[in-house]
Every structure is written in C-alpha cells, then in structure tokens.
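--- STAGE predict ---
source: upstream dedup step, 1 unique chain passed
mode: sequence only
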Amino acid sequence: MKQDSTRNTAYTVDCEDYVHVVKFNPFDSGDACSLIAYGGNNYVVIGTCRFQEEDAEVEGMQYKALRTFHHGIRVDAIAWSPETRLDALPPQIRFCTAASDRKLRLFTSDLQDKNEFKSRLPVYTGLQTLHIETFDGHSDYINDLVFAPKEGQEVASVSDDHTCRVWDLEGNEKAHFVLRSPGMSVCWHPEEAFKLMVAEKNGTIRFYDLITQQAILSLECEQTPLMSADWCLKNTLKIGAVAGSDWLIWDITHSSYPQDKRPVHIDRARLFRWSQVNENLFATTGYPGKTTTQLLVHHLGHPQPILTGTAAVGSGLTWHRTLPLCAVGGDHKIFFWITEM
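--- STAGE serialize ---
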C-alpha cells in the first residue's frame, strides 16, 4: 500500500494472481470502506479500500482482502449486485462473473466461514456460507455483464455470439436480443429499470425497452471497431465510447452521431469509463502493448488529457463510487490514480 511517484500512480496493491479485471462496487454497501473485486486466472478476490482523500485518519491507502473465491478458470468480467451489504447481519456479498468457458457464475456469500478450502475438519453447515449459480447459454466469449441497479434481480450480458441476454438469478433467460455484430458493452439505466444500452463492435449503440423487448433508439460511431461504451450515470443523456483510436461522446437528445470525438491512443483504444462523481470526467485505456498499457483521464473542459498513467500489461478500468479515483489491474498488482475534479 505504498505511495508511488513513478508515472504518478497514487497507490498500488500487490495481488497473488495476474489481474485481468478490477471493479469497484458502484453501489452503497452501507460501510465507510469501498468494496473492490478483482479477477485473475483462478480466483476472485474481494477487498475493502479506504483512502486518505476521504478519511484523514488513513495514511495513503488502507486495503484489506476480505475473501478469496476459487473460480477455477480465468475471470473475464465482474459485475457487483446492489444487494451486496456489509451492514447486514450476516453481511452479504453478491457478484457475477463471466469466464472464458462462456458461462456466467453468480456468487453469494455471507463471509462467515473463513477457511472453506483449507479446513479438513467437519464444518458446521447450518449457515450456507457460499452459493454459486451457473448461467449457461452464450456460445462465445462474454464481453460484459451488469446487474439491474435497483433491485438486482436480473443480470444482462453481451457476447461475441451476437446476442444480449437478460437472466434472472436462477439462470433462466428472461430476454434475448439478436445483435448484428459482437456485443462489447452493456449498461442499465440507473433510474428507469426497463432501459438497457448495448454497444456493438460494428459501431452501433442501441437502447432496448425490456418491457416491449424492442430497440427504442440507436447511435452511430461511423468507425470501427467499437471496443467499449459507457452510460454516464451523473447525466444519463451522455454516452461515451472508444472506437479505433478515438474517444466519442454523444448527447442523445442532440443527434445519433457523436457530438465530440478525439484521437487519443496511438494504437487502438480499449476501454471507456465515465467517472461516478463528475459528468465531464472519464478515462480511457489503450491496448496492452508489449510492456505497458496507457491510461488517460480526460475532462471535457480541457483539450488535452489531464492525467497520463502507465501500467505494466494493464487490464480492466474502474472508478471509485465517490472519489475522482480510478484503478487498473496488471501483473500481480492493482494501480490507483487520483485526479482533480
């Protein structure tokens, strides 16, 4: 948990596995600490973070691993459930993963039994400490998934199999949208629980009504490949994406074509994520190069990126729920950057 001056990383956390994906919990879990999940080749690790930027008692950053979940296969994406609560008795952790075997796995744990993999002694099973539900149906790589943000009773996923699927928590398919190219990103409207955004690799972003199961609006990049898109939760009229080497931003009341776009990454851009605290703040990453991945933080009021960082073979990108702070995974490490509002 040291403070790093190299390429302005604010903090790093050492991890026992290569980090393919990292995700702050975007929902309030009822605790002062922020929950963070990361996935590697075999495990998902859930931990808590607290930063000096939010708590003067903390020196730099405090990180505590809460639980390691054996996954047995590479983790490609993680989504948090809004039903995760640290202030309940017992606490509940709930998240869903997408893995390289084209399955989704829903994990629910009460964090009670600490040594489920080490103990050979009889374990009292009166409390179900860990429940894993597997969702089967996608026929190709799953690129993204998200929980319904209000009740958390459904999960949406998008795949290279040219579908977006909506599942209940038992793994039953509730809706199925056929896409025209691989689905790269899926986002759920924070207030209107029946609106889903799906971004396709061919440069089209569509909004679906889950009640009528029809497309209600579409946006066009006019360039490919679209690799990542995100819905701005601070202002839901704004959509951002990366396609080719550019970032693009739409105002959906304005036009189906981007209002603003800029080339940013020399190779291709890989991920786009809006900040959770400022509608003008967002981050993009480039493709992992031979040694490093470039992270850029942008502010719509500034012509140049306001922060440039590099991570050794970085992957994943996530923003803190209440701070202008983002994280990227890497080789046995998570890197954190803090920026100005």
